[in-house]
Amino acid sequence: MATIQAQATTRTRSRFSLDLVVQWSIVIVTIVLVLFPAWPLFVQAFTDKPLYDVTRQFSFSNVIRTFTSQELLGVVGTTAIYGVLSTLLAVVLGTVLALLITRTDMPGKALVSSLVLIPFFVSPLVLAYSWDTIFGRQGYFTVLVRALGLPTWDLLTLGGMIVVTAMFYAPNAYLQCTASLALSDPQLEDAARIAGANPFLTLWRVTVPLLRPAITFSALFIFVSSIEMLAIPLVLGMPVNIQILPSYLYKIGAIGSPPDYGQLAVVSILLVAVIAFLVALQNKLVSQEKRFVTVGGKATRPRLLRLGPWRIPAFLVVVLYMIMGIVLPLIGLIMKSFVPFLNPMINPLTMLTMENYENLLSIQSYSSSIVNSVIISVIGAALGIVFMALIAVVVYRSTFRGRQALAYAALFPRAFPGIIIGIGFLWAFLLVPGIGSWRNTIWAIMAAFIMRYLPLGFITISPSILRISNELDRAARVAGASWLKMVTSILGPILFPALMSGYVLLFITFLKEYASALFLYGPGAEVIGTTLITLGRNGDTGPMAALATIQTAITFVVILLTRRFLGVKLYE
Length: 572
Known about the structure:
The chain is an all-alpha fold. The chain folds into 2 domains: 1-35 and 376-527, MetI-like (MetI-like fold), CATH 1.10.3720.10; 73-242 and 271-353, MetI-like (MetI-like fold). 72% of the residues lie in helices and 0% in strands. The chain contains 26 helices and no strands. The chain has helices at residues 2-35, 39-45, 61-67, 70-103, 109-115, 118-121, 124-135, 140-147, 158-183, 186-194, 199-210, 212-227, 231-237, 245-255, 261-287, 311-336, 355-362, 364-396, 403-411, 418-431, 442-452, 454-466, 471-478, 483-512, 528-538, 541-566. The longest helix has 34 residues, at 2-35. The model is unreliable at 1-15 and 289-299 (pLDDT under 50).
């Protein structure tokens, strides 16, 4: 009997030790991954020479020079205006679309609800280039309007940047408001109608106020995302010297001669601090949403607001918005990939050619960027979602003492814009002995992508874990299973659909990502986003359109296959 008890104790200690080894390994890898690109920024900010210079010394000169820069002060002001106005426009567009689709009898809602989500799956680089193709200074529609003798517009302005950015982020506000409307109790609206309020007054005084948490959350998310946006300011702003902080960092760090690494580090730290504060504020506001909970035990369906004679005009206005803002630019970019040049005076169907694709695929660095992006997306998304799921399991389904700190570490990369992550990884590879040769490889880029989107995977998997009853854990423990055995044999199979959904989401996100790779790619390690920027900077608009079309086609093929064979909807 004593022997059996001793063997059981030995097995228990062994399992316990193995569980601790796995949990500590996850924590250590997470901390290393998160801090790896962060610490070189502080080192560079307070040294008088570049990091690779062994004669560098501690100095405050970079900080003083940064805070006395008049150019930087102007960039900060432009960034604030750009972020605020982009957020306001995106939130208004998303909220109005959500109300029209979920709370009115507007016709064609199924079509509209599909079209409004297209920017959600398109790279911001592709959207910016597509708008420039149609509405730019020499864009197809701009030239057509000019030929008719009508006044035109200038897309390469701060206003143009704001409009395109709002189009890109409007689906985020739409999804937040739609989810909130689905959970709000329609009996409140019915009570207002019974009290004598007309449908429009009910919408304004009852429905919209209940959306305040969703509007606030989406507004903060869009503001944070817009001030770290690089693609649209790079395409539409830099040619006319309109800069926000990310494009300013790109200018002084990537295309400046010589690069100003000191100021680059200081500005990066300031931007991270601002975004970290906004993310913390966002989390605090989300924690207060319980004051707006209206769902009770009795389920009822909301009454749709009857638009009457405004049904058709509302539908036409929304469809015009979709066509002009989403469909037409993307069609124009695709058409441009099949013609030598796109001009309204010449029928493009008479000039169809595959020359742009042939030129694109004939250059090794361009064609390899497609292969590299697919490899990074396939392998990186798989490694990323498994690692992110393990983090979530340790946080929510273990007794590990540091699990709360691990949750904060997993969400911390949300404060790092992609371009700053790329800078930090580059400098870390240069400073840590023995790993410098890895800095210009797809594996370094893959690590940067995983680090940047750690919060996305963690947030995607966490709700599915929280919906699984703890009774399964206790039953497994009673049966003698270790924590690791419980995770692999019980939680793993149950979480498989959520893991597949997260995997596809990361695949698409990695395929679109570009900012984190700008300082890491080298010969043979290009990705689609960096090649698009190179082609656009060189004026090779035909091959650029072809590459953007290929990227978009891969994205939508993956989405269709996912929905067809796995039944996964990424936006739910």
